[in-house]
Amino acid sequence: MLSRIAECHEDRVAFASKYAYIVIPCEEGGYAACVPDLCGCMTQSETIEELHTNVQDAIWTWMDDAMLHDEDIPSPSFGVITWVTKRYKF
Asked: What's the CA dihedral at 52, 31, 40, 80 to 10 degrees?
């Protein structure tokens, strides 16, 4: 478990990009994503391009909250983006 993340923006970007996330097309349009290694870390957007940015923001927000509450941050288990082909209604 990682207890702290470097505050430098470049370090945060590099670290956050190591987490895998699952992309889920939404029935009503747009996309949702969740990060399995970070419980409750999820986001959504209208476009896939926006989704990738939103996932990085969600990961950083999750990490900031964990550090604020002095909680451990799990190491990434793998770094592959997974796509779900079926559309789901949220």
From this structure: -50
What is the rounded CA–CA span in Å between residue 15 and residue 12?
A: 5
Is residue 3 within 8 Å of residue 64, measured between CB atoms? no
Domains of the chain: 9-83 (3.30.160.250)
Task: Please give the Cα distance from 67 to 64 (Å, whole number).
Answer: 5
pTM: 0.75
| Stretch (H or E) spanning 55 | helix 48-68
Q: How far is CA 4 from CA 10, 50, 70, 78, 83, in A?
A: 15, 27, 9, 19, 30
What pLDDT, in 10s, does the model give residues 25-56? Answer: 988 899 999 999 999 999 999 999 999 899 99
Assigned token pair, 35: 């990060």
